[in-house]
Amino acid sequence: MLALAAGFALTLRAAPEPRWISAADPAxxxxxxxxxxxxxLAYVPSKAWVRxxxxxxxxxxxxxxxxxxxxxxxxxxxxxxxPLVRVGDNMIAVDAxxxxxxxxxxxxWLRRRLSAPAAFERLSFRTRDARQDEWLYVEVVDDKGHxxxxxxxxxxxxxxxxxxxGNEREHVIALRQEPTLAYRTQSAPCDxxxxxxxxxxxxxxxxxxxxxxQVALGAVRLHGATDTDLGGPAGWRLEPGAGEHRxxxxxxxxxxxxxxxxxxxxxxxxxxSVDVQAWGPTGETTRVVSDRTWQANGxxxxxxxxxxxxxxxxxxxxEGPGARxxxxxxxxxxxxxxxxxxxxxxxxxxxxxxxxxxxxxxARVRLRLQNWQGDEVFNQDAAIAWRGAEGRAxxxxxxxxxxxxxxxxxxxxxxxxxxxxxxxxxxPGETNVASVIRTLTPIVRRGMPLQGVDxxxxxxxxxxxxxxxxxxxxxxxxxxxxxxDNGEFxxxxxxxxxxxxxxxxxxxxxxWSTNAPGPDGRCRFVAPDGCHRWDLSPEALDxxxxxxxxxxxxxxxxxxxxxxxxxxxxxxxxxxxxxLVETTGMTLEEAHAAFTGAAxxxxxxxxxxxxxxxxxxxxxxxxxxxxxxxxxxCPKLLKEDVYPVVLALALGAAKQYGAxxxxxxxxxxxxxxxxxxxxxxxxALRLAHAAGVDNVYTEHFIGLCRIRGVTYxxxxxxxxxxxFLDDAxxxxxxxYTYLDYEPEVAIIRFPDSDWGQASCYYWDTxxxxxxxxxxxETGEWMQVFSLLTGGQSDPRAVNAxxxxxxxxxxPVMMPCPPTAVxxxxxxxEVLRGVPTLFLCGVxxxxxxxxxxxxxxxxxxxxxxxxxxxPERVRCQASERPARVGDKKGAWIVLDGFRPEDLGxxxxxxxxxxxxLRLKFKGREVAxxxxxxxxxxP
Length: 937
Prior knowledge:
Elements: E1 2-4, E2 33-41, E3 47-55, E4 57-62, E5 65-70, E6 77-80, E7 88-97, E8 106-118, E9 122-128, E10 134-142, E11 161-163, E12 169-174, E13 195-204, E14 212-223, E15 228-229, E16 236-242, E17 249-252, E18 257-263, E19 271-279, E20 285-289, E21 295-296, E22 299-300, E23 331-337, E24 342-343, E25 348-356, E26 364-371, E27 376-383, E28 385-387, E29 390-397, E30 403-411, E31 419-426, E32 450-456, H1 461-470, E33 474-478, H2 481-485, H3 488-499, E34 502-506, H4 509-512, E35 526-527, E36 531-532, H5 538-545, E37 550-556, H6 558-564, H7 588-607, E38 613-617, H8 623-628, E39 632-638, H9 643-657, E40 662-666, H10 678-690, E41 695-699, H11 701-704, E42 705-708, E43 711-714, H12 716-726, H13 728-731, E44 745-748, H14 780-788, E45 819-822, H15 828-831, E46 836-839, H16 846-857, E47 861-865, H17 871-875, E48 882-886, E49 889-894, H18 899-902, E50 916-920, E51 923-927
Parallel strand pairs: 24-31, 32-33, 32-41, 33-34, 34-37, 37-38, 38-39, 39-40, 40-41, 44-45, 44-46, 46-47, 47-49
Antiparallel strand pairs: 1-2, 2-7, 2-21, 3-6, 3-19, 4-5, 4-7, 8-13, 8-16, 9-12, 9-14, 10-11, 10-13, 14-15, 14-18, 17-18, 19-20, 21-22, 23-25, 25-29, 26-27, 26-30, 28-29, 30-31, 31-43, 35-36, 42-43, 48-49, 50-51
């Protein structure tokens, strides 16, 4: 057993998850923080791994022997340390450093509290020993917390700019008379008759070149009916402002002065997370995880709150003995351009920083530059100057033509990091990076189906080069109304024209915000009939269409917004506002007709401007009325989806109404990003292709390509997409589309929008109507899917947002025969040849019932709710379940679709098998639970 130094054992079952830890005290300037943990090992393990994640750079060592380094790693990394651990005492150490800079303007507060409120007319004090152009901002505060505002150089107090001479100066401020600078809003003005506090803010402008210094203050007095002496450091306290503050000190001085010694040298609290696991020879598993028991710079570690973002998003814990380990890295290189960008024809300097496990005295670093077209334009080695294990090299870049360039730095013998730096060269006098867009050339491979990414947009060199390197041909771009006003929308149009990328605009801004005033002051999110959504203006649509590359507007999770009445944008306690149409007060059939009509109207608006309406959906609920309205369907894969349901509904709706069909694999799941493994993502890409759709784009690009400043790097997910795209030519001969789908099972139901809302947190509002809750009839189709998946799909919900599925463990891939869901108006053309039918839900049209009867007479088996059967069949089924023969086929008349409701007729169900199966033009493709299949394209 692995025994910890504290003398207790920690097993895998009892151990908590690893936590982010940080240091209570910063490390010395320009030094990393050190995190350590000692442990004892009673045996030699058969396997020992460590997983480490750091914000931002780290060195990992076990028992003093280096394991790996990372430089702003995007993902946690796992390493095999079996050869490094030993019986007895062991030590793991992580040196971490955060590679950030101080703000240009740093400041710190000195505050002094009075024992009781009092009236004062003047404040006086003396300063000396200033050497760095320090500025003072002075305020007094009353007992209600109201401030006088700042007495400062910006309000006719030039003496509060202390200068560099260090001379002693006296400052006298007439509190009631002198103008002040308001720096925060307050309900009332300062009451100078009840002052309780003096505040002095000491500012260092341009702190980066010289972040440390000192200022002495003395003879601090408040003058009134009775004067109060505030001199000496006792009673004063330092409070943080902007920039690093913890090295700053208050110290006694001489001749009645006290000294503020400030030091804003960056110490931005690097954080680490560590998980050590050892597997014993007889199967024991033990752990040591980062927590308060670790030491950070010699003191107990703290547990900071680390926001989940693009730099701290991967699982922190080792997933198990089957997880993959990373190859160790001995050194990492980052690139910094002087000035951030270049000027056409002018030489520019580049700094190459090396973060190594140990100094590499003979190593040289190589810098290569590639232009937008992929041609190498620079290649040079440079010597490295070392300070400990950190190295630095300088390289002079020759004058280059205006454009975008990719820089790659590497060390001989060190594994390639696959990290790139983006470099923009502008024309003399230019300041807007978007100006280089006109130098770009097409990057799209012609003749390929649309395959792209969901992304936000800015004219950022790293983002633009990331698109190029990924190999996509389509962008689905989240825009905000602000971007339409500030020119970024026009930059996007120019970028797509230059590169040949097709694109769609995502209007999700309205899902998260209640208001967006346009130039005329009117809210752009106010839609007709009291609805809340963002319909782009005709002018914006026309400008996008004029590029010849515009696909349309993506109404992101439009079905979600309709069902929940925009409760994301509006407070949960309110009724919210409808998204497409108000349905409260309608019957279910009226709500369906109103929703379909509203979707058709919005789509026609886009068609008039040469675009289309695309609805991206997470819940399998409203695809049939959207398809009926000629809207392009875009269901999600991954996320919280159950694949047999998503495919059956999407393929069925598209086939029935001839609608266009896209898919978007979405990394999110239950608030986690990514909530799915690389293997599941790869399976989702292959499944979307196998379904024969027109476009597959991945949400969100930040999961594929992480960008930080000029640096960008493709994640394992990005590598998976690149491999998928590289194989596109071999997949081009698929030979069918989604419209060629040949289901062996058809579920026929009225599209009531019930996906299992009653079994989870969600609002029970069918079609968004406040008075239309789910019913047993609306939930019948979910029971049918449970039958078709062998019970793996829960009969209460067909999306894992429902609590009936294990949180974070929902199985997306389930076995199921080729199935399509059709609505209550399905005709004979889509039902012909389907051997097994299910008739459920609230209603079915006479024409559809007649088509089902014809199928049964030709030999189909129809499992049907008794109330939906033809009257002649219902009369023959006085007791249920019942089998009623009808020429070559039969009706199985039921009161429900649970296994027990089927009774002796359960063997008539189609075989579930062991794979999710689809069928096109007589060809079957199958996916096992892990996404693999012998004949999956």
